[in-house]
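Q: For a teaching handout, I want to show students what a protein-ligand complex looks like in token form. Below are the inputs, and the small molecule is zinc ion. Please produce the holo structure.
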Amino acid sequence: MYKYFSDKELECKHCEAEGIDPAFMQKVDKLRDKLGFPFPITSAYRCPDHPLEARKNAPGAHASGRAVDIAVRGEQAHRLLQAALDAGFTGIGVSQKGGVRFIHLDDLSDSEGRPRPHVWSY
Ligand SMILES: [Zn+2]
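A: Here is the structure, written as tokens, with zinc ion included.
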């Protein structure tokens, strides 16, 4: 279905439910193709019962199926950010401190309690 990603790595890690949005994932696939380096996906779809979603007031971007966290750092993180902005991703979360380094991408539209476009850190 995707050139670079298996359904397995995109499912909910809590219950193996599949819920990634195919149109969103096509954009990620294209970005991966353009950049030419591996995108280890640390989190993609998360069902509303996933522990990280269940503790929120309302399920977050990952529960929509239109978000991924990509383990990337340094120069590759810089290249990824530039390409993601060019590609129109509207939600960009940057975690680049300590052992767990990743960039969150989503393409959600502006909504109550979830402004877009938006950049945040963790
Ligand atoms: Zn789940």
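A: Two things your students might notice: The mean pLDDT is 97. The longest strand covers residues 91-96.
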